[in-house]
Design a protein that fits this description.
6 helices
Length: 240
Amino acid sequence: MVRQERDRWGSQPGGDPQEPRHLAAQAPARARRRAAEKIFANEERLEAERDRILVRPGFRERVEETMRSQWREPVVALRLGDDLRFDVPGRRLDGTVKGKRLVRRFFWNILRGIGVAAAYVFYLSNHAGGGRSGRARREFHVMGPANAMALDLVDRLRPAKGPWLVCSPSSVAVVDTGSTSVDPADAPQPQIIWQARKPQAPDVGLGTRTITWPDGSSFKFPLHGRTEAQHLRQYVESLR
């Protein structure tokens, strides 16, 4: 009877002889899950700290106050990222106009060739196991026909040092605060570099992060880190 009971419940060296065998087998999986949760939580803390350093508290409030006083409407301000990729006839991937800066492009193409070779090795190493091809698809932020209406906004955005997208029920704007890693008290006054109001304003889909113009061109705006994504999600949820 004693042997039967021990066989039934199992015994692991160094473990609890009273723990059922199937529960003991699940213990490593639970431990790995807890370890992964700790790693993800630590990564989130590090990213949040990085965001606080790169986008100091106070800039958002200054931008929102500037536009709220001008538009007399509730607003939301989002710090934009600077990694833009174009799919527009006449534009290169980085948004520069084809046919210009030829000398600079010559040397850039040499460096890019080296980068492409390295990227190809990376691609092979990450797809040797049959990974999904969808992950390798390139996402474009600016899309549309030649001379797309979206280019008016994006061409003004690209040189900005600290770009913010500001939206209200009837308006949309891009505001430049300069570097957001300095003390806001030492920063220059926010500058409006582009804005549009209804009925001329394009359609803004905050849920999809996409601005669309009547000619079909669009700007899928990137955000500056996880903090901005969380801020946008909370704002969108508050509207429901």
